[in-house]
Design goal:
The protein is mainly alpha-helical. The protein has helices at 7-17, 34-47, 64-79, 110-186, 189-196, 198-207, 209-217, 223-244, 253-285, and strands at 21-25, 51-55. Helix 4 crosses helix 7, helix 4 (110-186) runs antiparallel to helix 9 (253-285) and helix 5 (189-196) packs across helix 6 (198-207).
């Protein structure tokens, strides 16, 4: 029979997920074929502690001597493989009593199988309940970290925006002030009064007096050089403003509200449910007289 997938790989994949791996050796079928033992050996190499070996349909193996001979044959085949040759090897005999056609003196250890399954299930439930609280705390911690990082990004963006605005104003005003001062000191009073008026000219002369003094101390041959340096400084300030005003990503109000709702739900609903689930588990596992 051909399958549309690799059967061996599917069994190995299931073995990685399972808490218990049962290997049933059928005394009638081809339980010791090479393909089966190869898969069992690969499983044992990774999950030896999860594996359990059983002789199934033990009631159909004949008399006690026949069963012993079958078990010896199985053990010999297993011991030939290094991955399956281990100490403390145990292989209980099991069969389904309701499907047995006649009474058998073979010891049926199927109850031990059921107990082993129940024990593993209980242990898995306990581990799951114990990890529930840890997972809730981890989720809450991650949400808090994300919100705190968003608050830090908000503070950083405000600072970066303030620095960017300051440098932009400085980069724009510096050449403008120097240019206006240069024009005011170069133009005659008559031209300024005819252009701006008497009151505006007086105000301009009052505020631009320091700039006029600066220009007066600079030789006229170097005025354009000073303007070029100021223009270069202005470009530097504008470049710094663009660089320092880069913003970090922020959460939207909808995202922050969603995170807050998720945190409340995990803390108040899921985390608090652990105690109720644990109590329910104890009621199912322990008899009433033991409570």
């Amino acid at each position: 029979m051909k399958y549309p997938f690799d059967v061996n790989q599917a069994i190995l994949w299931l073995g990685d997920l399972a808490d218990l791996i049962f290997v049933f050796f059928d005394p009638i079928g081809q339980a010791l074929c090479k393909r089966t033992l190869n898969v069992v050996e690969e499983l044992s190499a990774k999950h030896a502690d999860r594996m359990r070996f059983y002789l199934s349909k033990a009631d159909e193996a004949g008399h006690e001597s026949d069963r012993q001979r079958v078990m010896m044959q199985i053990v010999q085949e297993l011991c030939k493989r290094p991955g399956l040759n281990r100490t403390g090897f145990d292989m209980p005999t099991i069969f389904v009593p309701s499907q047995s056609s006649k009474a058998s003196r073979c010891a049926n250890q199927i109850e031990e199988v059921c107990k082993d399954i129940e024990k593993t299930i209980n242990q898995t439930i306990q581990n799951t309940l114990n990890s529930l609280e840890k997972d809730c705390d981890k989720v809450i911690s991650l949400i808090d970290e994300k919100v705190n990082q968003d608050n830090l990004n908000s503070s950083y963006n405000f600072s970066a925006t303030s620095k960017g605005i300051f440098l932009t104003i400085l980069g724009v005003l510096l050449p403008v002030l120097l240019l206006v001062g240069f024009l005011a000191s170069s133009a005659s009073e008559q031209i300024l009064e005819s252009t701006l008026g008497d009151s505006m000219t007086a105000t301009l002369n009052t505020y631009m007096a320091p700039v006029k003094v600066l220009w007066a101390n600079i030789p006229s041959d170097y005025h354009w050089h000073v303007l070029a340096v100021c223009l270069l400084l202005s470009l530097v300030f504008l470049g710094l403003a663009k660089y320092m005003s880069r913003l970090r990503p922020r959460l939207t109000r909808k995202q922050r509200r969603l995170l807050a709702d998720q945190r409340v739900y995990v803390h108040d609903v899921i985390k608090s449910r652990k105690q109720g689930l644990y109590s329910e588990y104890l009621k199912q596992s322990v008899a009433d007289h033991d409570l």
